[in-house]
Design a protein that fits this description.
It is built from eight helices and eight strands; from the N terminus they run ααβαβαβαβαβααβββ. By secondary structure, it is an alpha/beta fold.
Protein backbone atom coordinates (compact mmCIF):
# COMPACT_ATOMS: atom_id res chain seq x y z
CA UNK A 1 0.00 0.00 0.00
CA UNK A 2 2.89 2.35 0.73
CA UNK A 3 4.05 2.30 -2.88
CA UNK A 4 0.56 3.01 -4.17
CA UNK A 5 0.04 5.95 -1.81
CA UNK A 6 3.39 7.40 -2.86
CA UNK A 7 2.36 7.02 -6.50
CA UNK A 8 -0.84 8.97 -5.82
CA UNK A 9 1.04 11.75 -4.01
CA UNK A 10 3.72 12.10 -6.67
CA UNK A 11 1.14 12.12 -9.44
CA UNK A 12 -0.77 14.95 -7.82
CA UNK A 13 2.32 17.01 -7.14
CA UNK A 14 3.30 16.59 -10.77
CA UNK A 15 -0.20 17.54 -11.97
CA UNK A 16 -0.33 20.63 -9.79
CA UNK A 17 2.97 21.84 -11.16
CA UNK A 18 2.23 20.65 -14.74
CA UNK A 19 5.22 18.34 -14.73
CA UNK A 20 5.61 14.86 -16.24
CA UNK A 21 5.05 12.03 -13.82
CA UNK A 22 7.43 9.39 -15.12
CA UNK A 23 10.30 11.43 -16.54
CA UNK A 24 13.44 12.51 -14.71
CA UNK A 25 12.71 16.21 -15.21
CA UNK A 26 9.49 15.68 -13.29
CA UNK A 27 11.57 15.92 -10.13
CA UNK A 28 12.55 19.55 -10.80
CA UNK A 29 9.61 21.15 -8.98
CA UNK A 30 9.41 18.48 -6.29
CA UNK A 31 13.14 18.65 -5.53
CA UNK A 32 13.85 20.70 -2.44
CA UNK A 33 10.23 21.16 -1.40
CA UNK A 34 9.58 20.73 2.32
CA UNK A 35 7.20 17.90 3.28
CA UNK A 36 6.00 16.77 6.69
CA UNK A 37 4.74 13.25 7.35
CA UNK A 38 2.52 13.47 10.43
CA UNK A 39 2.28 10.24 12.39
CA UNK A 40 5.17 8.72 10.46
CA UNK A 41 5.37 5.53 12.52
CA UNK A 42 8.36 3.46 11.43
CA UNK A 43 9.11 5.85 8.58
CA UNK A 44 8.45 3.69 5.51
CA UNK A 45 6.28 6.33 3.85
CA UNK A 46 8.70 9.10 4.83
CA UNK A 47 11.54 7.24 3.14
CA UNK A 48 9.55 6.73 -0.06
CA UNK A 49 8.61 10.41 -0.15
CA UNK A 50 12.20 11.49 0.49
CA UNK A 51 13.32 9.44 -2.51
CA UNK A 52 11.15 11.68 -4.69
CA UNK A 53 13.64 14.45 -3.97
CA UNK A 54 11.81 16.39 -1.28
CA UNK A 55 13.19 17.44 2.10
CA UNK A 56 11.08 15.31 4.43
CA UNK A 57 10.41 15.68 8.13
CA UNK A 58 8.77 12.67 9.76
CA UNK A 59 7.05 13.42 13.05
CA UNK A 60 5.47 11.06 15.54
CA UNK A 61 4.31 11.48 19.13
CA UNK A 62 5.77 8.10 20.10
CA UNK A 63 9.48 8.14 20.93
CA UNK A 64 9.92 4.48 20.03
CA UNK A 65 8.50 5.07 16.54
CA UNK A 66 10.91 7.92 15.89
CA UNK A 67 13.88 5.88 17.09
CA UNK A 68 12.87 2.92 14.92
CA UNK A 69 12.43 5.19 11.88
CA UNK A 70 15.88 6.73 12.37
CA UNK A 71 17.52 3.32 12.62
CA UNK A 72 15.78 2.10 9.47
CA UNK A 73 16.71 5.23 7.49
CA UNK A 74 20.39 4.71 8.31
CA UNK A 75 20.38 1.68 6.02
CA UNK A 76 20.09 3.97 2.99
CA UNK A 77 22.80 6.66 2.81
CA UNK A 78 20.91 8.34 -0.04
CA UNK A 79 18.27 9.57 2.44
CA UNK A 80 20.30 12.62 3.40
CA UNK A 81 17.31 15.00 3.30
CA UNK A 82 15.18 12.93 5.67
CA UNK A 83 14.94 13.70 9.38
CA UNK A 84 12.70 12.68 12.24
CA UNK A 85 11.50 14.41 15.39
CA UNK A 86 9.27 13.37 18.25
CA UNK A 87 6.41 15.84 18.16
CA UNK A 88 2.70 16.32 17.63
CA UNK A 89 1.29 18.31 14.73
CA UNK A 90 0.06 20.91 17.19
CA UNK A 91 3.55 21.42 18.62
CA UNK A 92 5.18 21.53 15.21
CA UNK A 93 2.90 24.13 13.62
CA UNK A 94 4.27 26.77 16.00
CA UNK A 95 7.68 26.41 14.33
CA UNK A 96 7.29 25.81 10.59
CA UNK A 97 4.95 25.69 7.58
CA UNK A 98 5.32 23.15 4.78
CA UNK A 99 4.84 22.85 1.02
CA UNK A 100 3.29 19.40 1.40
CA UNK A 101 1.53 17.84 4.41
CA UNK A 102 0.96 14.09 4.55
CA UNK A 103 -0.80 11.90 7.14
CA UNK A 104 -1.39 8.25 6.29
CA UNK A 105 -3.61 5.96 8.36
CA UNK A 106 -3.45 8.19 11.43
CA UNK A 107 -6.71 10.12 11.70
CA UNK A 108 -8.74 6.98 12.55
CA UNK A 109 -6.72 6.66 15.77
CA UNK A 110 -6.97 10.23 17.13
CA UNK A 111 -9.43 11.36 19.79
CA UNK A 112 -10.54 14.53 17.96
CA UNK A 113 -10.46 14.14 14.15
CA UNK A 114 -11.63 17.71 13.52
CA UNK A 115 -8.84 19.19 15.64
CA UNK A 116 -6.35 16.88 13.93
CA UNK A 117 -7.44 17.98 10.44
CA UNK A 118 -7.13 21.61 11.53
CA UNK A 119 -3.59 20.97 12.72
CA UNK A 120 -2.70 19.45 9.34
CA UNK A 121 -4.07 22.46 7.47
CA UNK A 122 -2.33 24.83 9.88
CA UNK A 123 0.97 23.11 9.05
CA UNK A 124 0.49 23.87 5.35
CA UNK A 125 1.56 27.02 3.56
CA UNK A 126 -1.18 28.83 1.58
CA UNK A 127 -1.76 26.81 -1.57
CA UNK A 128 0.10 23.79 -0.18
CA UNK A 129 -0.96 20.21 -0.90
CA UNK A 130 -2.42 17.99 1.82
CA UNK A 131 -2.74 14.22 1.56
CA UNK A 132 -4.71 12.06 4.01
CA UNK A 133 -5.40 8.35 3.83
CA UNK A 134 -7.76 6.48 6.12
CA UNK A 135 -10.66 4.02 6.20
CA UNK A 136 -14.30 4.47 5.33
CA UNK A 137 -16.96 3.65 7.91
CA UNK A 138 -18.70 0.84 6.04
CA UNK A 139 -19.40 -2.88 6.55
CA UNK A 140 -16.79 -3.65 3.88
CA UNK A 141 -14.14 -1.70 5.78
CA UNK A 142 -15.11 -3.46 9.00
CA UNK A 143 -14.52 -6.78 7.27
CA UNK A 144 -11.35 -5.85 5.33
CA UNK A 145 -9.61 -3.67 7.93
CA UNK A 146 -10.79 -5.17 11.23
CA UNK A 147 -12.25 -8.66 11.05
CA UNK A 148 -9.76 -10.21 8.61
CA UNK A 149 -6.42 -8.79 9.88
CA UNK A 150 -7.27 -8.70 13.59
CA UNK A 151 -9.48 -11.74 14.15
CA UNK A 152 -9.03 -14.16 11.23
CA UNK A 153 -5.38 -13.75 10.24
CA UNK A 154 -4.13 -12.31 13.54
CA UNK A 155 -1.56 -10.13 11.74
CA UNK A 156 -2.70 -6.95 13.52
CA UNK A 157 -3.23 -6.76 17.31
CA UNK A 158 -6.89 -6.98 18.24
CA UNK A 159 -8.38 -3.64 19.15
CA UNK A 160 -6.03 -1.66 16.89
CA UNK A 161 -8.96 -0.32 14.89
CA UNK A 162 -12.38 0.85 15.98
CA UNK A 163 -14.93 0.93 13.16
CA UNK A 164 -16.79 3.74 14.93
CA UNK A 165 -13.74 5.97 14.44
CA UNK A 166 -13.49 5.34 10.70
CA UNK A 167 -14.34 8.42 8.63
CA UNK A 168 -16.42 8.69 5.48
CA UNK A 169 -14.87 10.64 2.57
CA UNK A 170 -17.72 13.17 2.69
CA UNK A 171 -17.04 13.78 6.37
CA UNK A 172 -13.32 14.28 5.77
CA UNK A 173 -14.04 16.71 2.92
CA UNK A 174 -16.37 18.68 5.20
CA UNK A 175 -13.69 18.86 7.90
CA UNK A 176 -11.13 20.12 5.41
CA UNK A 177 -13.51 22.71 4.01
CA UNK A 178 -14.34 23.98 7.48
CA UNK A 179 -10.69 24.79 8.20
CA UNK A 180 -9.73 26.29 4.86
CA UNK A 181 -8.88 23.48 2.43
CA UNK A 182 -10.60 22.15 -0.69
CA UNK A 183 -10.71 18.51 -1.75
CA UNK A 184 -9.12 17.88 -5.13
CA UNK A 185 -9.35 14.13 -5.56
CA UNK A 186 -10.24 10.91 -3.73
CA UNK A 187 -9.16 7.44 -4.77
CA UNK A 188 -9.80 4.02 -3.32
CA UNK A 189 -6.91 1.80 -2.20
CA UNK A 190 -7.84 -1.78 -3.06
CA UNK A 191 -5.71 -4.70 -1.94
CA UNK A 192 -5.16 -7.67 -4.25
CA UNK A 193 -4.27 -10.50 -1.81
CA UNK A 194 -3.57 -13.01 -4.59
CA UNK A 195 -0.81 -10.91 -6.18
CA UNK A 196 0.05 -9.05 -2.97
CA UNK A 197 -0.51 -5.68 -4.62
CA UNK A 198 -2.49 -2.52 -3.97
CA UNK A 199 -4.29 -0.58 -6.69
CA UNK A 200 -5.72 2.92 -6.97
CA UNK A 201 -9.35 2.90 -8.11
CA UNK A 202 -11.79 5.66 -8.95
CA UNK A 203 -14.23 6.77 -6.30
CA UNK A 204 -17.29 6.40 -8.56
CA UNK A 205 -18.15 3.98 -11.36
CA UNK A 206 -20.93 5.43 -13.46
CA UNK A 207 -24.04 5.58 -11.32
CA UNK A 208 -22.39 3.64 -8.50
CA UNK A 209 -21.37 6.42 -6.15
CA UNK A 210 -18.47 5.84 -3.73
CA UNK A 211 -18.15 2.22 -4.81
CA UNK A 212 -14.37 2.51 -5.07
CA UNK A 213 -13.86 3.94 -1.58
CA UNK A 214 -15.75 1.39 0.48
CA UNK A 215 -12.68 0.48 2.53
CA UNK A 216 -9.31 2.29 2.36
CA UNK A 217 -8.97 5.57 0.50
CA UNK A 218 -6.60 8.50 0.01
CA UNK A 219 -7.59 12.13 -0.44
CA UNK A 220 -5.74 15.09 -1.96
CA UNK A 221 -6.59 18.61 -0.85
CA UNK A 222 -5.19 22.12 -1.13
CA UNK A 223 -5.06 24.86 1.49
CA UNK A 224 -7.06 27.83 0.24
CA UNK A 225 -6.72 30.32 3.08
Amino acid sequence: MNRTRTQFIRSHLADLSRLPVNETQGRSWISGRRLVDVGCGGGLASESLARLGMRVLGVDAAKENVEMARIHAQRDPALKYLEYVQSTAEQLMEKEAFDVVVSLEVIEHVADPMAFVKSLVDLAKPGASIFISTMNRTPIAAFVDVLVPEYLLNVVPRGTHDIKKFIKPTELSQMLRAVGAETLDTKGLVLDPINNQCHLVDRDYGLLRNIGVQANYIMAARKTK
